[in-house]
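ARCHIVE CARD
Drawer: 12
Card no.: 0347
Subject: one protein chain, sequence and derived structure
Cross-reference: see card 0346
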Amino acid sequence: MHGTGVPLATPFTETGAVDHEALTALTAWLEAAGIDFFVPCGSTGEAPLLTADERVRVVETVSMQTDKPILAGTGQEGYHPTLETTERAAQVGADAALIVTPSYYGSDDRSLKRYYRDLADESPIPIYCYSVPKFTDHALDPRVVEQLATHENIHGIKDSSGSLESLQRLVRLTAATDFSVLVGSGGVYAPALDAGVDGGILALANAVPEQVATVASRHATGDADGARSLNAALVECNRALTARYGVPGVKAALAARGQDVGSPRRPLEALEDEATAEVEALLEDALQA
C-alpha cells in the first residue's frame, strides 16, 4: 500500500442498516478524487459497531466498485475472530488486512509480537499492523515492529500515534525490509512524507480527498514546500474531524460534500447544529486552500 488511503466512512440508512448503495457511490466519488487505496472497516468506518457479517459485506461492496487496492480492517479482540474475519474478507476481494492491536486485556508487546506473527502464518493475505493508542491505550514499540517486519506476510503498519519520532524510527528500523510505513494522522501527512513514510490512511481524506491527494502528489513531484504549505492549511479541518468530533464530524463533512452517508451508529450521535456549522466552515476553508 502506497500513497493516499482513505479509511472509508460506513453509510447507514435511516433504519440503521449498512447502506450499500451509498457506499458504492462514496467509493466511486473518492476514487475519482485521487484516492490510491481503500480501507473499509477501520476506526472511521465504525468497525467496532459492525458485525462480522456486515464487515464482510462492506468489503465486498467496495471491491465490486473499485480496482484500487483494498486494505480491509479485520481486527477483533480475539485471535480466532480476527483470523476468521480476515479469511472471509480475502474471499470477497480484500488484498490485505489491517489488524488493530487488541486492547481489552492490555496485552504487552511480547504477546502482541506472537499474536501478529501467528496471524501472519495463517492469513491468506498480507497483514498490516495498526497502532492507534488513542483508542487502545497502547502504541506498538518500533523495535517490535522491526522484528515483525522480517515476516514475509507482514507488509506494513499504520501508525496513528501522531508522533513524528515514532514514524522516523519505524522508517529507519524497517528500511532493510519490504515493509510499508503509513501515517494515520492527517495533520502531519507532509512532514511524515518528508520523514520517508510510504503514504497515509487519513480520516481527512473522506472529506477533502482531492486536497489530501494533492499533498502527496506535490511531495512526489519534488514540491515538498508546497506539500507542507497545503498540509498546514488542512490542520484545523483535520483536528475537527478527528480529535474534536471524530466519526460524527466526518459524516457531517461528507453530507456537506453531497455524500449521503447517514448518521453514526449508537452510542455515537450526529453533531448538533452549532458543531455542524463549524465543521462546514472549516471544510470550506480547506477546500479553498
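Annotation on reverse: The two ends are 27 Å apart (CA to CA). The mean pLDDT is 97.
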